Amino acid sequence: MADTRDIETLIELMARLPGLGPRSARRAVLALLKKRDALMAPLAQAMAGVALTAKDCAICGNIGTAELCPICADPARATSEICVVEDVADLWAMERGGVFKGRYHVLGGTLSALDAMGPDELGIPRLARRVADDAIGEVILALNATVDGQTTAHYIADVLADSGAQITSLAQGVPIGGELNYLDDGTIGAALRARKRF
Amino acid sequence: MADTRDIETLIELMARLPGLGPRSARRAVLALLKKRDALMAPLAQAMAGVALTAKDCAICGNIGTAELCPICADPARATSEICVVEDVADLWAMERGGVFKGRYHVLGGTLSALDAMGPDELGIPRLARRVADDAIGEVILALNATVDGQTTAHYIADVLADSGAQITSLAQGVPIGGELNYLDDGTIGAALRARKRF
Question: CB of B85 within 8 A of CB of B143?
Fold first, then answer.
């Protein structure tokens, strides 16, 4: 379909989003074409605006629209606790949990020789300086319960061992609403070892 | 997450695309935020460009970037055949088939009292004028094999009955690569009735 190259380009770009392939990108673009004023123009504008203004927070690596992210700029958040997460998505998940009221450090990945992700790429020296300078009382390692996540957690715990901050990690156990029957053996074992008085 | 309202707005708009919900929209926006220069800015630009330039073709209802769509503007396409489709998506599917070399009429839906879609909304009078004025030899009804699609096809066939144009519809039968075992009874019956000499 010559001459609709713009539309083809749009479909190709949409297809690069996670969860969309060529077929679903085409479907999404058709829906946009049908709602040009109601959806397509506002979406294009919102996207261009965020692309221009989005910034990585200079302190924690979270994404915001200013030099400091809303969490680092919020005086109501405890400055003595840092929660270390792999990714901005994990930070958002923690915030949806609504329990943690301290600050964050976003690694942006895990230690990986294959992906050339070393301590510097993850901002671990920056985290260590922050812990030393800001008299941080507790560092919570909220990394994924994967091999890479736990390797990185152990490395960070080693680096911060002499910092004086308490190093903790998220509890492992039965998820809320979880059925024992469907849980893997490792989780049941961890929940049993960490059992507590009822 | 106050102050990242722009990002929240972007997620809400993305979630209105077909095939994306709140979770997958969040995932898509995170991917965009991580590739701000490589993907987000070009996508915003492509979308804004298409939102500005996309037009419904004055003749057939296809979406293009000029007054006439590339197909209506293409002198190499046969002017004596019109293929009637429900939707631009169906037109794109026909074009991917690569067999039809005539022009189109995009209805933009099917006759539906509930959705207030009558002959005028589907451009059926416009189609009838076109068939009369342009001495169209054949009108191919490529409507979906659903109740609504077939009702609309019968209505159009009635309207065009005295136009002199031959009215045809797509063959029904076993899809290429289809296995009899997995086909519904209706399709097998249709394929058997329309059997042809081997």
Answer: yes
